[in-house]
Amino acid sequence: MPIKETAKIWHNGKLINWSDATLHVMSHVVNYGSCVFEGIRAYQLPSGPAIFRAQEHMQRLIDSAHVYRMELPYTRQELVDAMLDLVAVNETSPCYIRPLVLRGYGDLGVNPMNSPIEIYMANYEWGNFLASGAQEGPVGIDACVSTWTRIAPNTLPAMAKAGANYMNSQLIKMEATVNGFAEGIALDKNGYVSEGPGANLFLVRKGKLITAPIGNSVLPGITRDSVITMAQDLGVEVIEQVIPREMLYIAEELFFCGTGAEITPVKSVDRISVGGGNVGPVTRTIYDEYFGIVKGTKADRFNWLTPVPVAEVVGA
What we know:
The chain is an alpha+beta fold. The protein is built from 7 helices and 17 strands.
């Protein structure tokens, strides 16, 4: 999906023109991938635009930066407020929001600590990256188990949403794409199910909703947490457990979840049908609940949505 430009990008406390958000080719991040980021969605409700789980996303950004010794000069609330201002001034909703913390132009050795820390935020139109065109309701995709293993513990920290981690994700995604699948599923270093290249994974077995624990090289997804919360509230038993590969083939239902993927059912794995290729009842319930909340047709009973105020924006 080509990026659709908006008017402004937030950079280090100021709103700048989209075309002015540039980096030198010798910046540390360009050479070594030294950045952490977030993916966040704003949805259009009948009452106006609102950002989904803004506080939780910004806390994860701060946590990711902290792991890489990148201390930010802004509080979580200040970053949330900046994001609200950005969405308001660009008047783009629904939209995807990309906060990015990076090491800029300074020293070029492996040691990043003498390169300045810069913070950017952009927002733009972006749909579900796993969906195929316009669609109403959940539609399943074909997935495969990747030959590439998810990053191992104590190598790159999986709990940090760092740009460098997504080189591994690119290998998984490219392999799936060239082999005719919509998405790949990575196993961890012990051969157990981990996650997709950019989304967490849930399966249904004997009516129970199962997902891999964080220790299986899994990003602690905000949407993952939302699915667990919704399922438990709806009376569905949720289990975090080690998942052997073969459980993917005998699962009654399977779906990806994430900011980009939202709730995306999987209809087959390695050409083996999941649930007869149909969207199962648990997946459909979670899908309907999620989109009901983010589109305003169901009550926001978990207080996940932060309205975007229509007001004069400071720093333009």
